[in-house]
Amino acid sequence: MAARYLFLGVAAARCATAGSAACSADAPLSCHNTTSYDTCCLNAPGGHLLLTQFWDTNPATGPSDSWTVHGLWPDNCDGTYESNCDASRAYTNITQILQAGAPSTLQYMQTYWKDYHGNDESFWEHEWSKHGTCISTLEPSCYTNYQATQEAVDFFNRAVSLFKTLPSYSWLSAAGIVPSSTTTYTLSAIQSALTAQFGYAVTVNCNSNKELDELWYHYNVQGSVQSGTFQPTTPVGSGSTCPSTGIKYLPKPGSVTSASTTLTPATTLTTATSTPTGGALSGKGYLNVVTSGSQKGCIIGAGTWYTTGTCATFTATPSGSGFTLTSSKGKCAISSSNALTCSSSVTAATVFTYDGTNLNYSGSSSFYATSVPTGSTQATVYTASNTVSLKITWQAI
């Protein structure tokens, strides 16, 4: 299918069909353009992109502490969509394509992009043929020196990289919404937990048994899908298929936890080799909690301590002789009650230091809690002496 031009006005197209590298930095946001634009640099008509995720329990797929990828779908900005747009590129060898072009993406998909029937290859072929071939910026004519199947590699690379920014399990867990065979949840609670992290409403779907099983994250894109900027946006199309109350979020029976992000209590802490030996920290990392010489969980987005969920990602920014910390919840500070808190209401972030092993506040590496949290319980972390003494270490990512 040849590259298309979207004509919505009189302005001339500003991108050559040379692939994403040739796209102008001031490319319009998809679904918002009012002038003509080369669809190698502006996805159209499918300018509303959805990163969709599964929670499969019967049979279970993927790690017990992570959702899995369903797909990356282009919708037409109004809830309608095209599908199976180019039969000539309905590739039937996705595994081989990725083995040659993106082996690390393939390895990740083998854990996090699973088919509940057990036929991952068939599932990947379906997602590419139905949805990937309808992404205009991935058409072969949009590439300079196009190599066969490279657009499929770009599709799976982008879907995986986007999925990695959407830790649904962690976001729900941080709000006390965890898989359970007995507890049920309300749609408003689930939606609030996800919206607080993503910034916009998420489409929450359930099966006919009121079981939570799918999430849709909505985006518009500035530039090409393979290298442009994905901006979260308001959902379009059909709403949630879940009831307002009584939603089941069942555990995954017989599945394993993910080695990369699971918090394992009472195990020896291994610090990333990129962790500095002292001074100010910089970049992204996890804040692991250590008690009595053993790692017991980590700090999550709000600044509380959790032992059974997924670590939050913090950004350390040098400030003076130390650094400040920010999570998805906002800036982090020590409050007037001596509690560590991260929130959008924090206006002045606290400056911490690092002694090569532990996080320090006012020259001390000692932090405290009233108890060691278990299950979905979160514990407040204090700088004033309390029952449980703990250290906080940095693991760069």
UniProtKB/TrEMBL annotation:
One of its GO terms (molecular function) is RNA binding. It is found in: Cytoplasm; Vacuole lumen. Its main location: cytoplasm. It holds the Pfam family RNaseT2L_C. One of its GO terms (cellular component) is vacuolar lumen. Residues 1-18 form the signal peptide. The active site is at 70, 127, 131. CDD domains: RNase_T2_euk. Keywords: Cytoplasm, Disulfide bond, Endonuclease, Glycoprotein, Hydrolase, Lyase, Nuclease, Signal, Vacuole. Residues 280-395 form the RNase T2-like C-terminal domain. Rnase which modulates cell survival under stress conditions. Released from the vacuole to the cytoplasm during stress to promote tRNA and rRNA cleavage and to activate separately a downstream pathway that promotes cell death. Involved in cell size, vacuolar morphology and growth at high temperatures and high salt concentration. This is Ribonuclease T2-like. It comes from Parachaetomium inaequale.
